[in-house]
Design a protein that fits this description.
79% helix, 14 helices, 313 residues, flat, mainly alpha
Length: 313
């Protein structure tokens, strides 16, 4: 397991370097002059060539792209993601200030995904091609068909405007997170349920499951003691990828429900062409996604010896 973990950790290094390069390039290829925009936000009404040149020197934009990247990467390694052009606040500080909101949304969402995704899949596999399976396939088809922004609007109208039982924006207690988490979890519950069902049905056809049936072991015990532990591994991988995406910021969900998370922060930066924030967000969310994916790989290797033996070879 140690050798497998070491190889996985080493494989992450070039990925992180690639993410940093992409994050930096976004600032170079985005339309507009960052120096002129920074001066405009500083309250300078008339941007003269002299002021523009001084600002470019101050921001280090007069240097070659490779030099700019290494200067920026050196600051990043020291924990400095730069300052926002809009309000001159620390990008790192603002990301960490908003991160708890995104973490809360991700936590509630993952609870729904884990419970209902696995439950739907197990029920469908247990009653394959019967009434419950047909009903659940119909429900999951609907859940995957609805775009998240459309579902968010419907939930707001029904539970916020008509029934007035749930808040539709801002942060607070659990009630404030019900509609955003349901919206965020809907499609992934359907996908994980489908994946769980297909994984279980594949396990049902294997020899060890047929032998357990032939011995007269109860169906429920065969399902949970033999089939489920093997079938759940692909679903765990899906959960991990989805969790990494949520922690990277669910921009649409946070925007619709007015949640001050890192996803809405990135949208605000895009509208304002705030390049340091965009670069910091891309790098920050990329690191989070890679870290979660690495954790899931190690967890799957711990649960399944075949994975770590194959990965260590």
């Amino acid at each position: 397991m140690i050798r497998y973990a070491g190889k996985r950790l080493l494989s992450v290094i070039p990925v992180l370097i690639g993410i940093s390069v992409i994050a930096f390039i976004l600032g170079l290829i985005t339309p507009g002059d960052p120096a002129a925009m920074a001066l405009g936000r500083d309250g300078v009404s008339e941007v003269t060539p002299q002021l523009l040149e001084e600002k470019r020197q101050e921001l280090g934009l007069d240097q070659p792209g490779a030099v700019q990247y290494f200067n920026w990467a050196g600051k990043v390694l020291g924990g400095d993601l730069g300052k926002s052009y809009s309000d001159h606040t620390s990008v790192r500080g603002e990301l960490f200030r908003r991160l708890p909101v995104t973490l809360t949304l991700a936590g509630y969402t993952m609870v729904l995904v884990c419970i209902f995704g696995i439950l739907f899949g197990v029920c469908s596999a247990a009653f394959v091609n019967k009434g419950p399976d047909v009903l659940l396939k119909f429900i999951t088809n609907l859940m995957m068909a609805f775009p998240s922004f459309w579902l968010a609007i419907v939930l707001i109208i029904v539970f916020g405007e008509n029934l007035k039982v749930l808040p539709t924006n801002g942060v607070g207690g659990i009630r404030h997170m019900i509609l955003p988490s349901v919206t965020s979890a809907s499609a992934t519950v359907a996908m994980s349920g489908r994946l769980m069902r297909s994984s279980l049905l594949e396990e049902f056809g294997k020899q060890y499951m047929l032998a357990a049936d032939a011995k007269g072991i109860k169906r429920i015990r065969v399902l949970f003691c033999h089939g489920f532990p093997n079938a759940v591994l692909p679903v765990i991988t899906l959960f991990g990828n989805y969790l990494g995406g949520i922690l990277g910021g669910s921009a649409i969900i946070e925007s619709v429900f007015s949640l001050p998370g890192i996803g809405s922060y990135a949208l605000e930066a895009i509208h304002a062409r705030d390049y340091p924030v965009i670069q910091g967000y891309v790098l920050f969310s990329g690191i989070i996604y890679v870290a979660v994916s690495l954790g899931i790989d190690l967890l799957c290797g711990l649960l399944n010896p075949k994975i770590r033996l194959r990965g260590a070879s």
